[in-house]
Design brief:
CATH class: Mainly Beta
Shape: globular
Oligomer: single chain
Number of domains: 1
CATH topology: Barwin-like endoglucanases
CATH architecture: Beta Barrel
Order of helices and strands: HEHEHEEEHE
Helix content: 10-25%
Structural class: alpha/beta
Largest sheet: 6 strands, mixed, barrel
Number of strands: 6
Strand order of the largest sheet: 1-5-2-4-3-6
Radius of gyration: 14 Å
């Protein structure tokens, strides 16, 4: 089932216009909230903004993806957003592909924050 969802997301991603996308990671997409992050500085040096269209990726991906635009697709709903990589964490240790600000997570997940996770695909986004 997960493979079917991944393949469907890849078809949607490549058939949506002139942009091209390169898969980076897929798996759990979680959120981080203001109670533990507001006022803190992200890996990019900017303050954490709970309303910014940004994403934290695994620490191992930072060198290559810092500042890049990525498309995050919810594999369960097909909802997708373009986000900028501005932070990191040791996410893969917990099976997490990306961590979003809570308002962005709510937009793409279509779920209450209490559910806290969805299966997603992260792709490098290049406008063609």
């Amino acid at each position: 089932m997960k493979l079917i969802a991944l393949l469907a997301a890849l078809v949607i991603a490549t058939a949506s216009g002139n942009e091209s996308c390169q898969p980076i990671a897929w798996g759990k997409i979680t959120y981080y909230d203001c109670s533990s992050h507001c006022g803190k500085i992200t890996r990019s040096g900017e303050p954490y903004d709970p309303a910014s269209f940004t994403i934290a990726v695994d620490d191992d991906l930072w060198e290559e993806w810092a500042g890049e635009l990525v498309r995050v697709t919810n594999l369960e709903t097909g909802n997708a957003l373009i986000l900028r990589v501005n932070d990191t964490g040791y996410l893969s240790e917990n099976g997490v592909a990306g961590d979003l600000p809570e308002s962005v997570w709510s937009l793409i997940s279509g779920r209450p924050l209490s559910e806290g996770v969805f299966q997603g695909l992260i792709e490098r986004f290049d406008q063609g």
